[in-house]
Amino acid sequence: IEDRIEISPESMKISKQIAKHIKGNGGTSLIIDYGQDFIQGNTLRAIKRHEFVHPLSDPGQADLSADVNFRYLKESVADLVDVYGPVTQSKFLQSLGIKARLLMLLKNALPAKRKDLISSTERLVHPSAM
């Protein structure tokens, strides 16, 4: 059993700066990343050549990633601005009209490209893909 929780004080600091700017000047902010609305434990991972590798196996040669705890960010600014979300990538892209965009692309696509367009779109909106 692991007894670790990832905390990003720098993320909280940046989100507070953004919220203070919005409160003083108006506007809105959209934060996009992978994560959840709860504490997730150990999400640190490394990706090299499209494969997961141990984060310390090849320093400087793999991309490091960790999921965002959106609840942590929301709580850090709730006294300054209204906060909403998170929403899934699928819901977000569908609200922007990804299906309509796919249909437009399919109308003009060569037959050989149609399958790639459909599978790429499915990868973006399917819950188990991304």
UniProtKB/TrEMBL annotation:
It comes from the Eukaryota. One of its GO terms (cellular component) is mitochondrion. It is an enzyme of class 2 (transferase). InterPro entries: NDUFAF7, NDUFAF7_sf, SAM-dependent_MTases_sf. It is found in: Mitochondrion. One of its GO terms (molecular function) is protein-arginine omega-N symmetric methyltransferase activity. GO terms for biological process: methylation; mitochondrial respiratory chain complex I assembly. Its EC number is 2.1.1.320. Arginine methyltransferase involved in the assembly or stability of mitochondrial NADH:ubiquinone oxidoreductase complex (complex I). This is Protein arginine methyltransferase NDUFAF7.
